[in-house]
Design goal:
18 helices; alpha/beta; single chain; six-stranded mixed sheet
Length: 497
């Protein structure tokens, strides 16, 4: 039996207020608009909700016709993780590319322009930036989403990103607290564990979050990770020691605490989303993110009912739920005011490509000769399976730009043990441009590049993930990410070097 009804009581309204659900389609379904009228204060947008900036602006206007201060959240990191440009690839390089340049004013400018575009579309909360220190190069889910492996580097760029984004009137949500960088497991699939001491955590992982708090980050997102040095029993999202004891009391953070997606296996497969949501709010979280995989009315009803039932049973203090709802409303109030004052924020529409060009690391061998003007090449893209955060909808690579610059260029996508041989066979006499993504994580990919270079020493190698291997090939270009602008910058470098 649902607790939801018109004329919603305060308890149920608070339970709805702390949810950040997703929904299907490019217009708001009737059930969602009805729940907004009953107290729902936030929604989360994903790639499935976006066709164009114009359509997105119409969607957010539709939502605000029901509630003018609604929080409209999105997972728009730029770089590999884009929802605003899910069908074309991002106009902005991601964190790893910005960290490679290491110009905090550039990072601030990129975040400002990204925030300005989000604000134009009516989005006022961005689940970004990632403040994770990429301490484990084999991390399957962070990688190029991190500014890098150096704590100080990540801290200063996190602060710059927060400042830039929020100067456009869009609230930053710094993630994934207390740091997802030193994991070998993707929390979309299982519960990662970080076994390091308190001294390492404070010196390495927590420093970027301190910087984000000092910069005024309006929200922080928790990680579904187990950190025994902080709490040996519960993952951070469900841990009062971590969310209240560490983040609130020790670090002095007073903004909104948002959970990572509750349908991720690290929570849903161990606690379930209903029990997990109750435990998260009790631990100190203020908003429950759900909707990447579960995007229906039933999920909203189940979670709201679970929170109400927990209050009525005494498991969840009513004051804690009320405090969480008040923090959601406070952020909504801030975005309403900040959006008006930042409406004329001056960005730079070309800053993304400028940053992508600056992020390139180009290594030439004595064998390298630029392609003959007008001579087409064959682009061999060695494609790994994308992690869930990145998704497989967004195009990546250099083929489209090389086809524009070198008409007649062909392309193929290869994977597995025979990838190198297949690429050679299809290339024929054409010059080969091998495009790899996180080669160090995939033995078959490294073997494919070896095979290409043995047969065709003039091969160009474009590394679009975290560059770990020694540069090789007649020309090696590290882009530090697979955003569309990174591919554009790499293609320009191939024809001009």
């Amino acid at each position: 039996m649902t607790t939801l009804a018109h004329g919603t009581d305060t308890l149920t309204r608070d339970a709805l207020t702390v949810l950040q659900p997703g929904f299907p389609g490019t217009t708001a379904p009737d059930w969602l608009l009805r729940r907004v009228g009953e107290g729902l204060a936030s929604v989360g947008l994903f790639g499935r909700n976006i066709d164009s900036p114009e359509q997105l602006a119409a969607l957010t206007a539709q939502l605000r016709s029901e509630r003018d201060d609604i929080l409209v959240a999105i997972d728009e990191e730029g770089g590999d993780v884009t929802r605003l440009e899910v069908h074309t690839g991002s106009s902005f390089p991601g964190n790893h590319a910005l960290g490679a340049v290491d110009d905090v004013e550039l990072t601030r400018a990129v975040a400002l322009e990204l925030g300005r575009r989000l604000a134009e579309c009516g989005v006022n909360l961005n689940w970004a930036p990632s403040a994770d220190v990429n301490a484990n190069a084999g991390n399957p889910v962070i990688g190029v989403r991190s500014f890098g492996a150096g704590t100080d580097l990540v801290a200063r760029h996190t602060a710059a990103y927060v400042a830039g984004l929020q100067s456009a009137g869009v609230a930053a949500c710094t993630k994934h607290f207390p740091g997802h960088g030193d994991t070998a497991v993707d929390s979309h699939h299982d519960l990662p564990r970080i076994d390091v001491g308190l001294d390492v955590l404070h010196a390495r992982d927590l420093a970027p979050f301190r910087a984000a708090i000092a910069a005024g980050s309006r929200a922080v997102m928790s990680a579904h990770i187990l950190v025994p040095a902080l709490d040996p029993e519960r993952p951070a999202t469900l841990s009062r020691r971590i969310l209240t004891g560490l983040l609130r009391e020790e670090l002095g953070y007073d903004g909104l605490i948002v959970t990572d997606g509750m349908e991720m296996q690290a929570i849903s497969a161990t606690y379930g989303i209903e029990r997990g949501s109750v435990l998260a709010i009790a631990a100190g979280a203020d908003a429950i993110c759900v909707g990447g995989g579960l995007a229906d009315e039933e999920t909203v009803v189940q979670l709201s009912d679970a929170l109400v039932a927990a209050v009525r049973s005494g498991e969840l203090p009513e004051e804690r739920l009320a405090d969480a709802a008040a923090r959601v409303r406070a952020l909504a109030s801030w975005t309403s005011g900040a959006g008006r004052t930042a409406r004329d924020a001056a960005g730079d529409p070309e800053i993304g490509l400028v940053a992508a060009r600056r992020a390139l690391t180009v290594t030439r061998s004595e064998r390298y000769v630029p392609p003959v003007a007008g001579a087409p090449v064959h682009v061999a893209a060695f494609s790994p399976v994308a992690n869930i955060a990145v998704g497989d909808e967004t195009p990546w690579g250099v083929a489209a730009d090389l086809e524009r610059l070198l008409p007649g260029t062909t392309t193929g996508s290869y994977t597995g043990a025979d990838a190198g041989a297949e690429a050679l066979a299809e290339a024929g006499e054409r010059r080969v441009v091998a495009v790899v993504r996180d080669e160090h994580r995939h033995d078959w990919m490294a073997a494919a590049v070896d095979a290409l270079l043995a047969a065709r020493p003039d091969t160009v190698v474009v590394e679009m993930g975290v560059p770990q291997a020694t540069p090789r090939g007649a020309l090696h270009i590290a882009t530090h990410g697979a955003a569309r602008v990174c591919g554009t910058a790499a293609a320009e470098a191939i024809v001009s070097n």
